Amino acid sequence: MPTAIGGIAGLPFLGSLRSGAIGVWVRETFSALHVRNYRLFFFGHGMSMIGTWMRRTAMGWLVYEITGSLSLLGTVMALALLPLFLFAPIAGMMADHFDKRRVILISQVLSGIVSAALAAIVWMGDPAVWQIMVLAALGGCAFALEVPARQAFVVEMVGKDRLLNAIALNSALINLTRTVGPALAGLIMGTVGMAACFALDAWSYLVVIYTLVALRLPPHKPRVETMSRLRQLTEGVRIVFSEPTVRLVLFLLLTTGIFGWAFQSLLPAIAQDNLRVSEARYGVLMSMFGVGAIAGALVTASRARSPNRLRQMYMGAWAMIAGLLFMAFSRAFWPMCVALLVSGFGGVLFVSTGNTMVQLSVADKVRGRVMGIWALAFGGSLPLGSWIGGHLANAIASRAPSSIPLLGRSKWIADEFLGPNAAYFTIAFFAFILLGCVLSSLIFLHPSARMSERNPTAQPEEV
User: Which of 74, 83, 91, 272 has its CA 20 to 30 A from that of 372?
Assistant: First the structure.
């Protein structure tokens, strides 16, 4: 066959594309995986997160199936994240002082015990809501211990040059598992039962524990601290408020956590009451957010050397708001899937870029404390948003549309957003509040953060 007609060898432009643009893209996008320790960590964490998403999906469905209450659904989801709000700064201080790998190991053992207990109470039949609440809170305590240590541990494995790439790949991993986990959970709930979801999650922690033990790391050398524990905490807070970029990112993270991610606690109710889908389709619905998030994470990973991270972060925030507004008007399965795709893309583009900006704006020795405050802002805002969203939707659903001032006078609003469609109203209401917060940040916080980003010498390396 002539070289000008067939085969890779006969199509030089394909060969050059493979070794050129595509090869460069692959190397740039997955560069952190060249590091052995991070590669092991990545695999173990991925297996664990598949189980975690299975547990969260099954827990939401189980609580709403038992109670039929939007407020209780929001409360249980909030309890799973409340410890992150309460203990994240302390956990961040522990990450600065103790061996981060050991802290993560302890958290994984605790999480495995919680999942095993959930499997046991569901397997025995007739689980009580209070039991689920207690176990959700205990699982949240393990999560609060893990998050700051894991966030600060990444830079120790890959270095600062590959930090954004590693964070973005971790986001891609979490959201790939967000896609696979709920889909598996829906399939398993519909065939085997909910207890199997919790049991598989418990087994998944054995994998991540093994990979953590297999990491090759130098012996941990405890840092000698001259400051008291209280002063160490206040030092982290001082850095957050004095560094313009960190201040901007954390404000957006806090408002996005309250008003942007709260829709997740309402999805089980929307799936059962409005879309009327089966467990399997609910799993697919939960997965769609993960599909969009994977795309957002891969875009972030491929743009690890982007000179304007502020613009990239705002692009993610705008995309998330657009997805929320589309979600509020989606009354069928496939439009809701598209809305979740857009929200997932924007949410991860925002969080991954913002996380990197914060870590690169502070000194190594205080990174754990600052990431503890990051976890406080994000993890604390999530349960607050879930709790507010669940109670707001429940209050609107329990009232006659005609009794709600202004809104109840419009037949279209009453039909589309009130009564049984109260969850949609809550999502739309939160989206407009988030829009106002992002616009406010552009006016009051963005200019100083932009100057800080353009002048790297202003970013502290020692404190």
Answer: 74
Query: Residue 377 belongs to what H/E stretch?
Result: helix 367-397
Whole-number CA gyration radius for the chain: 23
Please state, in angstroms and rounded to a whole number, the distance separating the CA atoms of residues 10 and 1. Answer: 8
Tokens 């799973």: give the residue.
Answer: 80
Q: Count of residues for the chain?
A: 463
Number of Cβ atoms within 10 Å of the Cβ of 2:
7
What pLDDT score does 436 carry? 92
CA distance 154 to 288: 27
Name residues of the chain where pLDDT drops below 50: 1-18, 456-463
CA distance 256 to 260: 5
At 456 the pLDDT is 45
Cα separations in angstroms, 93 against 48, 82, 218, 221: 25, 18, 21, 15
Q: How many helices (H) and strands (E) does the chain have?
A: 18, 0
What gap in Å lies between CA 215 and CA 221, rounded to an integer?
A: 17
Q: Calculate the CA 167 to chain-centre distance.
A: 12
DSSP 227: S
Domains for the chain: give ranges and CATH numbers: 31-214+230-456 (1.20.1250.20)
What are the residues whose beta carbons fall under 8 Å from the beta carbon of 368, sequence distance 6 or more?
92, 93, 94, 95, 96, 97, 100, 148, 149, 152
Q: What is the pLDDT of residues 397-435, one digit of tens each?
A: 777 666 666 666 667 677 777 777 788 888 888 999 999
**What integer pLDDT is reported at residue 463 of this predicted model?**
29
